Amino acid sequence: MEIQLNEEQQKIYNLVLNSKKSGITKANLAKNAGLNTKEVEKIIKTLENRDKIKSVRPNGRTTGVKLWIDFNQTLDSSLPTNVFRTAEQGVDDDLIERIKQKLIYFMQQQFDGRASLDEIRRVYKAQQSEHYDEMDFDRIINLLQYDSILIEEENSFFKLNPFRQQKFQFYLSYLPCQTCPVFNQCKPGNTISPEKCIFEW
């Protein structure tokens, strides 16, 4: 006899079912169910153990956004594969932060904290060897500049900002706008607007 799901488990399961072949992120499950991340993680584990849902990544990626779909469902192969963000799937903040920290560590090992763009690119490629994309690399560099961690110099060289070496509580790039694929269409009162933002703040 199958064990019945409790109210919160059923709520999460229904959200996964409703996502159909598109899947849904943990962040969106928490937001739509009105639960915190820890509660959702526990429910996800229970549903996975009961073969109700499973985790997948778009187009066979081994990094990037993780989605949950019905156990017997197949993920839509036409889903975008941006390693950081898609309009429906949310942002993989953990992946972005890991890559940023690895690049910062590399810069710290360089003389005077300086390195060329090509040298930084080689380090990024080594980390993202399976799914390297020049646009993703540009996004990371932009984020590090937005946060005033990297300063661009002449001849495509960058250096660490000496005044930004301490650990910060908040970076500008933590705002979802910085990596949003529809940022240019987002205006107050529009169909796409800050009031209707589906990403976590």
Percent in helix: 25-40%
Strand order of the largest sheet: 5-7-6
Largest sheet: 3 strands, antiparallel
Shape: elongated
Percent strand:
5-15%
> Uncertain spans, ≥5 residues at pLDDT below 50?
166-172
Q: Calculate the mean pLDDT score and round it.
A: 77
H/E element order: HHHEEEEHEHHEE
Distance between the termini: 42 Å
Extended strand count: 7
Number of helices: 6
Structure class:
alpha+beta
Q: Give the C-alpha Rg.
A: 19 Å
Describe how the helices and strands are arranged.
Blueprint lengths: L6 H13 L6 H8 L3 H13 L3 E4 L10 E4 L14 E2 L3 E2 L1 H16 L5 E3 H11 L6 H13 L3 E3 L4 E4 L41
Antiparallel strand pairs: 1-2, 3-4, 5-7, 6-7
Helix pairs in contact: 1-2, 1-3, 2-3, 4-5
